Amino acid sequence: MSKPIMAKATAVWLIDNTTISFKQIADFVGMHELEIQGIADGDVAPGVKGFDPVTNNQLTQEEIDAAEKNPLHKLKLKFNAAAVGEEKRRGPRYTPLSKRQDRPASIYWLVKFHPELADSQIAKLVGTTKPTIQAIRERTHWNIANIQPVDPVALGLCKQSELDAAVQKAVAKKAAEGGVMSDDERRKLVSTEQSLAMEEEAPKIPTAIEGLETFSLGGDEPEEKEEEIIDADSFFNLPGGSDDDEQP
To answer: Compositional bias of type Acidic residues: which residue ranges (predicted)?
Structure first.
């Protein structure tokens, strides 16, 4: 059940201006009955000025009269149509004016380095709208040529824990859908701490040149020839002489 605002001040006013029991007041303001007793004795909330719930549209006089006549009657907060749905309202977080110009850069960073995040997650992280995110994804934003990706955590638009939670949620969703991730995608989907803790793997050939490692212009590689042993005479092609031509 909803509670009135300024509970102690409301309790002070009800004690001073009505004959409602301590139990009824305690149930209405969400306090313990002994606390209400302490307020009446002056031991709790001394100096607190009473807050009139009737004037402030929290109680009706008829409700107070009914509670005074029946000690078992529970006070009910006055219905306020303007407050309906306030507690359940959800949407982009408020971003200070001084940081709103940084949002496109943070959106660009999230789109580039965490493409697995849904638009709703990005909107919640940095306090933006889905049309803006879509414009940056499709590079149709009016200032796209001047936008540079910047980490939203570094800009102070969200906390690292919030970003990690959103990424982990994306991981769980992708795993539930049975998607197969590459090594690069896997590193993007985890937090910075987890990524740094991963074991290094053997370097792989980039996808762009994959398959070229066996490519050669001459087709099949020629067989290796046996190395010929060449002596000095044959190398310099020196003419040989007979023993008879030698003079003493």
So the answer is: 220-231
Question: Is residue 222 exposed (0-12), middle (13-18) or buried (19+ Cβ within 10 Å)?
Answer: exposed
**136 Cβ partners below 8 Å, 6+ apart?**
104, 107, 108, 111, 144, 147
* Region of residue 91 (phi > 0: left; psi between -120 and 50: alpha; otherwise: beta): left
Note whether 113 and 149 are within 8 A (CB).
Answer: yes
Per the document, the length of the chain is 248
Query: So what's the pLDDT on residue 232?
Result: 56
Distance CA 12, CA 17 (A): 9
Bigger pLDDT: 44 or 186? 44
